[in-house]
Amino acid sequence: MTLKLEDVLIESLPYIRDFSGSTMVIKVGGNAMLNPEKDTAIMEKIIQDIVLLHYVGINPIIIHGGGPEINEKMEKMGKQPKFIGGLRVTDDDTLEIAMMVLVGNINTKMVSLINKHGAKGVGLNGVDSNLIVAAKKKNQKIIIDGNEEDVDIGWVGETEIINPGLLRIMIENNYIPVISPIAIDKKGQMLNINADTVAGDIAAAMGAKKLIMMTDISGVLRDINDKDSRISKIKLHEIDGLIEDEIISGGMIPKIKGAEVAVKSGVESVHIINGSTPHSLLLELFTDTGVGTMIFDEKEEETKLIDQMNL
Fold first, then answer.
1. Is 222 flagged in the annotation as binding?
2. Which of 6, 11, 64, 265 has the fewest CB atoms below 10 angstroms from its CB?
3. What are the strands of the beta sheet with 157-162, ordered from one edge?
């Protein structure tokens, strides 16, 4: 059954009341969303929805990826993208390309769209005010010709410290921060860091109410070839089993691990949704049924229900 506009608005009222004043981290990724050569309109609709959240009293923080466009730029420059465990192998040239695409292209585009639609966007990356201090990721173990080997994946970082002070200043002054996932280590070396991981870390550090991961699939699918096999809810204790069964695999692993970090740190829930579906962000947040996969801690949910019953 298709909801009428007035029904959607009425259904959204308790959610708007509950979310007003809260911080939400929104990670935007996926080919269609971040590649303006493919579909600028998709990115613009997402930004419009985020600006709407801002004007109903929610404090959005945007983290963006850019994997597909980085791949395209690399291939144009004669480099073949390589991934291990869902992470990009990043040599000196790849790091330079990633910084060019993330900071110089995608970030600026998103900020300009926020400004166009009446809010104040500000572009940041992990280097600004030491927002994301990281360490070079350790060698990854992979199987080559039946033997386990350690492989150096280059300038890839893992978060050590999030310094959220700058973000708090931005929010207090009514800005929408847009963050590129470039970090810095304690010696000043730039590092490429997975945007899903950054989103989880920042959501945790900011005490966000929710973390929304917008990608180009409709959440976690039991069968990657069956769009109707979406898992609507995943409890924390189910994650390891889904990874072992390879239902969660490849690039979905960093998303789920980022979600796990966020929920364990107190974020109420994490939602993985298809950002190329019009207004999926609003439908996930402001309707009872939702459109993606929600990751949550069932113990926290039980505690909240008990508290409500005792009021």
1. no
2. 6
3. 157-162, 132-136, 182-184, 190-192
In a domain, 252, yes or no: yes
Using CA atoms, how far apart are residues 29 and 24, in angstroms rounded to an integer?
A: 16
What is the tens place of the pLDDT at every residue in 265-289? 999 999 999 988 888 899 899 988 7
Supply the DSSP symbol for 208: -
The answer to the question of residue 230 being in a domain is: yes
The answer to whether the annotation marks 200 as part of a ligand binding site is no
The terminus-to-terminus CA distance of the chain in angstroms comes to 35
Into how many domains does the chain fold?
Answer: 1
The candidate with the shortest Cα–Cα distance to 221, out of 272, 163, 286, 151, is: 272
Please report whether residue 127 resides in a domain.
yes
Which of 202, 249, 155 has its CA nearest to residue 60? Answer: 202
**Is residue 192 marked as binding?**
yes
Task: Please report, for the domain that includes residue 245, its CATH number.
Answer: 3.40.1160.10
CA dihedral for 297, 224, 44, 103, sign (positive or negative): positive
Owning domain of residue 119: 19-309
Task: Return the number of other C-beta atoms located less than 10 Å from residue 9's C-beta.
Answer: 12
Question: pLDDT tens, 207-251?
Answer: 999 999 998 888 899 988 888 899 999 999 999 999 999 999 887
Cα distances (angstroms) measured from residue 119 to each of 13, 56, 107, 160, 224: 22, 12, 15, 32, 37
Please, are residues 197 and 253 in contact by the beta-carbon 8 Å criterion?
no
Strands 83-84 and 87-88: antiparallel
